[in-house]
Design a protein that fits this description.
- The chain contains 24 helices and 31 strands.
- The chain is α+β, with helices and mostly antiparallel strands.
- The radius of gyration is 33 Å and the shape is elongated.
């Protein structure tokens, strides 16, 4: 019988049936719904499945999303880094409807997770040799018991273990979130098997290396959540046992497997460095597990959800915080820890995973636990805080995902526990009945959702009909900064197949927020320049203001239903001009942004560059606070605010730019009403546009040594005698500058005589920053009519040692730069 129907294949089929039952009513809606809540990743994942298939069909690079972030496209290296996140779904999409391909892949993944753990635990419980045996022992078969042939004890143990692993609440939480890649856990039991077999010789090193890559192929961060802790504990165990040969094989497997995984991970890691979509993640505390999560079932459970404390502990964090151990699985694990010494290592692994899942701060009842003494409040840091900010680890924003390793540990322990229970039960029929009851109770206990949340796969008729239009370059959707709307846009693209102005491969769009915010004013000139021939307004995420603004600028929609309004972009009745949005007056507790667009003039073949300037004015009012001004995330000015401080600063602008007032330090999230953060009031913000003449080309972009470069400057063409001279400068500082570094601006007449100057320090400036300033030269006496020359330079004080001006070869070519001339009229 086993030759015709291998027991592992039978287990796969059983797990597949259970996956269908647990995910009810998905099986009834395979073509009309997608797995998970609407706020999850189902739309995004399904889009990527479509894109890989579409790119292969049309001869495009599947790892570069050319039809997102129009016209630039987006580097889709994460599609390369997570091959099993979208396979075999994209292959099935060639022959099945897209939603069916995505849903069938999810069901197969759930069943494969259980089958893989079944295979592992069947091996573990059928062999005498385990982690606690001496390295010299030979592998021997467990003595046969009743029912060992066919439905044997190790089969039932393995089946229960697979059931726990595939349905563990951590798994189901990510199922509800539509995290298709994180659901791919079937490589982990293969890795565990390979680690066990490494003690048998070098022939298993290659298997372990391949298993490392399999374990991270669904999501590369599984390296942090599962692979590194697992291999670290195993290495420590081998070291303590002085099994240096096995340790050497483990190191070899790690090096080979790491190199193999690096082929897929390196492009993604390179793209992640300095990229907001990856680094600006935050919410590490929110996405960590609660201390009580281990004993808290889902608040969506058909029975346990009635318990009030489930909401108190889990909040709304089923996606990342579900860790419920379960009564049956917990008892079986406890039996294994007491009666099976060789299983105790999995108790330690489970404990480690649980502690790491608690994140950087201890949470109780979904809030960071704090201690107060003498009006001071402090929080309790957890071990994960030691590594949370290290490179690579800082990408792991969701410590609750260590629950995947906890699931494996609990499943293996429970499998060992069933073997003990099996020994207590002598009657075969009784064993079968108990096994069925145990399995059914586990399924019931672990049920995280019922019914499974799903998201509609339907696309509005008008959106799908856009596929027939050849006059559409790209579509702009509003609101652009609503994550659910953005993911909906991705999914709808699978129907209309036109490029999107925004769009993302992961987490958030890389498109300049200034561009997207200004396009949301629906100025036809900006929309036409951006290539947005169609504007889509999501009514589900609009309070009515966006659609009203779109109607005022674009006219009536050509299609509308309860979900969406579609507009054609008309021809602009005015040329592009400086466009900007100002922040509202009020308190700055973190940041306040100004978005600008200056038309790019373009000058092919020119030997000079053109730049426009704005003059930013406002009043800042505060008490002993620092406000930093950033231009496209680069600090360009800074004020110490103590009272009311009028500000005026010139800034060079071209294309889309974001000017940000940033309180330094920002006000933290404060849950204690006794504590107050001093904010800064912003009033009368205004922007004045100045059409500046072109800047003549100068030999070197890095004009001065010591990391100082003059990036942009402006000298007025004329002034009236008796007026001061305003000179606008923007410096780029690749090295830090101090109080004794002096910047000077000198004005010379036609004879070379110094007639005006300002020599000032810029104060302490950080490396890789900038400084924008208006230097006002006041003259002792009114200047006579004529032409005057303006020079800038740097020197150190008190040595008066000048900075060198560098030529294109990097050689010192002087001590100052002439930046322009001006005429003095009568």
């Amino acid at each position: 019988m086993s030759r015709k129907f291998p027991v592992t294949l039978i287990a796969l089929l059983v797990y597949l049936v259970l996956a269908i039952l647990v995910t009810y009513p998905l099986i009834l809606n395979l073509s009309t719904a997608l797995v998970g809540y609407v706020h999850g990743d189902a739309y995004e994942m399904t889009h990527h499945i479509w894109w890989i298939k579409y790119a292969l069909q049309t001869g495009q690079n599947p790892f570069f999303a050319a039809n997102l972030a129009y016209p630039d496209g987006i580097n889709g290296v994460t599609l390369w880094s997570h091959p099993l996140q979208f396979f075999p779904a994209w292959l099935l999409a060639f022959v099945l409807p897209l939603p069916v391909a995505a849903n069938v892949t999810i069901l197969l993944t759930v069943a494969l997770n259980g089958t893989s753990m079944f295979w592992l635990v069947k091996y573990l419980t059928a062999k005498q040799k385990t982690l606690t045996t001496e390295n010299t022992e030979r592998e021997t078969q467990t003595p046969p018991r009743p029912l060992e042939r066919g439905l044997g004890g190790e089969v039932i143990s393995a089946f229960i273990a697979g059931l726990i692993f595939m349905l563990y609440p951590t798994m189901q939480g990510h199922l509800g979130a539509g995290h298709a890649g994180l659901m791919v856990q079937w490589g982990v039991p293969i890795l565990i098997y390979a680690l066990y077999r490494l003690r048998d010789g070098w022939r298993y090193v290659s298997l372990a290396a391949v298993a490392i890559e399999l374990s991270v192929s669904g999501h590369i961060l599984q390296l942090i959540y599962v692979v590194l802790p697992l291999m670290g504990v195993y290495a420590l165990w081998l070291l303590l046992r002085r099994e240096f040969a096995s340790l050497l094989r483990l190191i070899a497997a790690g090096v080979i497997g790491g190199a193999f995984a690096l082929i897929f991970a390196l492009p993604s890691a390179t793209a992640a460095v300095g990229t907001a979509a990856y680094e600006e993640t935050g919410d590490t505390v929110r996405y960590s597990a609660d201390l009580l999560a281990l004993v808290t079932p889902s608040f969506n459970h058909p029975l346990f959800g009635r318990l009030p404390y489930t909401h108190t502990v889990l909040g709304i964090n089923l996606d990342e915080g579900a860790l419920y151990l379960g009564v049956i699985a917990g008892l079986l694990a406890l039996v294994a820890l007491i009666r099976v010494p060789k299983a105790r290592v999995w108790g330690w692994i489970g404990l480690l995973a649980w502690i790491l899942s608690l994140g950087v701060l201890l949470k109780i009842f979904d809030q960071p636990f704090s201690l107060s003494a003498d009006a001071y409040r402090s929080y309790i840091p957890m071990p994960f805080a030691l590594v949370a900010d290290l490179p690579i680890f800082n990408l792991a924003r969701t410590p609750g995902r260590f629950g995947f390793l906890l699931a494996a540990a609990v499943a293996i322990l429970a499998g060992y526990g069933v073997t003990v229970l099996w020994g207590w039960l002598r009657r075969p029929a009784f064993r079968v009945v108990v096994a069925l009851i145990v399995g059914a109770v586990i399924v019931f206990e672990y049920q995280t959702f019922f019914p499974l949340p799903t998201t509609t796969a339907a696309v509005p008729v008008g959106v799908a009909a856009l596929a027939d239009r050849a006059d559409v370059r790209a579509i702009f959707s509003a609101p652009w900064n609503n994550l659910v709307a953005a993911k909906t846009d991705l999914y709808w693209q699978t129907a209309h197949q036109h490029a999107l102005i925004a769009g993302q491969v992961t987490r958030q769009t890389p498109v300049n927020p200034a561009k997207l915010n200004l396009l949301e004013t629906f100025d036809p000139a900006l929309l036409q320049d951006a290539g947005a021939d169609v504007v889509l307004v999501h009514r589900d995420f609009d309070d009515g203001s966006l659609e009203a603004a779109a109607r005022a600028q674009l006219g009536a929609p050509f299609y509308e239903d309860e979900r969406v309004a579609l507009f054609n972009t008309p021809d602009a009745d005015h040329p592009e001009t400086l466009t900007f949005t100002l922040p509202p007056e009020g308190e700055i507790s973190n940041t306040a942004d100004i978005y600008l667009h200056a038309p790019e003039r373009g000058c092919p073949g020119c030997t000079f560059h053109e730049v426009d300037w704005i003059v930013l004015t406002a009043t800042l009012t505060g008490e002993a606070r620092t406000v930093t001004l950033l231009l496209d995330d680069v600090p360009v000015h800074r004020w110490q605010v103590d009272g009311a401080a009028p500000i005026r600063v010139p800034l060079p602008v071209f294309g889309y730019s974001t000017v940000r007032f940033a309180l330094d330090p920002a006000c933290p999230i404060n849950t204690d009403p006794a504590l107050e953060c001093h904010t800064v009031a912003l009033s009368d913000p205004a922007v004045e546009f100045v059409d500046a003449p072109p800047i003549l080309e100068i030999p070197s972009d890095h004009r001065f040594d010591r990391g100082v470069a003059l990036s942009n400057w402006h000298v007025p063409a004329t002034i009236t005698s008796g007026e001061p001279l305003p000179v606008w400068l923007e410096w780029t500082l690749t090295q830090a500058r101090g109080e004794n570094d002096i910047r000077y601006v000198h004005v010379l007449d036609a004879n070379g005589t110094l007639v005006g100057q300002q020599d000032n320090t810029l104060g302490v400036q950080l490396a890789r920053s900038a400084w924008a300033e208006e230097v006002t030269i006041n003259f002792a006496t009114p200047l006579p009519e004529g032409e005057y020359h303006v020079f800038v330079g740097w020197y150190t004080y008190p040595e008066i040692a000048p900075f060198c001006v560098l030529n294109e070869a990097g050689v010192c070519a002087g001590n100052e730069v002439e930046i322009g001339t001006f005429q003095v009229g009568g």
